[in-house]
UniProtKB/TrEMBL annotation:
GO terms for biological process: anatomical structure morphogenesis; cell differentiation; post-embryonic development; regulation of developmental process; regulation of multicellular organismal process; regulation of transcription by RNA polymerase II; SMAD protein signal transduction. Its main location: cytoplasm. GO terms for cellular component: cytoplasm; heteromeric SMAD protein complex. Keywords: Cytoplasm, Metal-binding, Nucleus, Transcription, Transcription regulation, Zinc. This is Mothers against decapentaplegic homolog. It comes from the Eukaryota. The keyword Iron does not apply. It comes from Aquatica leii. Belongs to the dwarfin/SMAD family. Residues 170-336 form the MH2 domain. The keyword Hydrolase does not apply. GO terms for molecular function: I-SMAD binding; metal ion binding; transcription regulator inhibitor activity. Residues 10-122 form the MH1 domain.
Length: 336
């Protein structure tokens, strides 16, 4: 019993030491609440929480379940990740959290949550002509209505090899280093997929593995690849395609439903934030108005482009995404 209490006290001290701290009066009350929460956790829960916090999410697969009263998940996120967090409306649970459908408890592992990104510039509005352009065959039955993919001649990736014939695939992933595509297309059937750097963070697409196909990459590619870390989680959800940035660096995203067609520019998703990057309903409205060829090169309206660490466009030194060291293209599947 003595050894058990000693181990428990050790875990508690480690978690208290790892707290994110602020000096204002409001934060003192949060710290007091966090101490009370730690007393409620059993030894196994303390160990899971401590492992997740000290690894900064690299080893955070297990859930810490508590009753949802008083929003303990918000308190944990404030204490160990985001002291400036205000409420649960700023949070979204990662799709990889195994307790997402638990009807009784809520997961309080702070690394099972992401902060919702609110871009400075709002996405383009719906066009008033959209409903005239929608047809029944443009929607997949009993699924989120993704926009149909044709082999668009301006797509950098499809280019004659569009072979999405597996009805279970909702997208394929193409990894690029500057203007060169690296490795084969990666089909995705599960609702979510992890794309990470050189460490195997669970199941998903390892860019290190794909990089074996890249011979003598330039220094900017090697430096950027080393900064990807946990990378991103891509998830197909009821309201569209979400990107969860789990790395320590920003990612930059371009899609039909995020940008102004006349002046495309990527949206910055900071580290540890998430964003809906493709809204299928809005895409149906925007699709026919999109300027498919513009000053930034050809655009595939049914793809989402993600650059790791480096941005491009009018606010950056790189004018086109093909100048970015490491980037990913999400190729949405055809309707059926």
């Amino acid at each position: 019993m003595f050894m058990f209490r000693k181990r428990r006290s050790s875990l508690t001290r480690r978690l208290e030491k790892a707290r994110k701290r602020r000096s204002d009066e409001t934060w003192r009350s949060v710290e007091d609440e966090a101490k009370g929460l730690l007393k409620k956790l059993n030894y196994d829960q303390l160990e899971i929480l401590c492992t997740a916090v000290e690894s900064r999410g690299k080893d955070a697969s297990n859930c810490v379940l508590l009753p949802p009263e008083n929003q303990p998940h918000v308190l944990c996120c404030q204490t160990w990740r985001w002291p400036e967090l205000h409420d649960s409306g700023q949070l979204k649970r990662l799709p990889t959290c195994s307790s997402v459908t638990d009807p009784v408890y809520i997961c309080c592992n702070p690394y099972h949550w992401s902060r919702i990104c609110f871009p400075d510039s709002p996405p383009p509005p719906y066009t008033r002509f959209a409903m005239e352009r929608l047809k029944p065959e443009d929607r997949a039955p009993s699924e989120v209505p993704l926009v149909c993919r044709d082999t668009f001649p301006g797509s950098l990736t499809t280019d004659g090899e569009d072979a999405m014939v597996n009805p279970r695939e909702w997208c394929k992933l193409a990894y690029w280093e500057m203007a060169k595509r690296v490795g084969p297309l990666y089909p995705v059937e599960m609702p979510s997929v992890n794309v990470f750097g050189d460490i195997p963070f669970g199941d998903g697409l390892s860019l290190k593995t794909l990089a074996l196909h890249s011979f003598s990459p330039p220094d900017p590619v090697c430096r950027t690849r080393c900064k990807i870390g946990l990378g991103v989680t891509l998830s197909r959800e009821e309201d569209g395609i979400w990107v969860y940035n789990r790395s320590d660096n920003p990612v930059f995203v371009n899609s039909l439903t995020l940008e102004d067609p006349d002046s495309p520019s990527p949206t910055k998703v900071p580290a540890e934030h998430c964003l809906c990057v493709f809204d299928p309903i809005k895409a149906a409205y925007q699709n026919f108005e999109w300027n498919f060829t513009n000053c930034y090169g050809p655009v595939d309206p049914n793809s989402v482009r993600i650059s790791f660490v480096k941005g491009w466009g009018r606010h950056y030194s790189r004018q086109e995404i093909t100048s970015c060291p490491c980037w990913l293209e999400i190729l949405l599947a055809p309707c059926r």
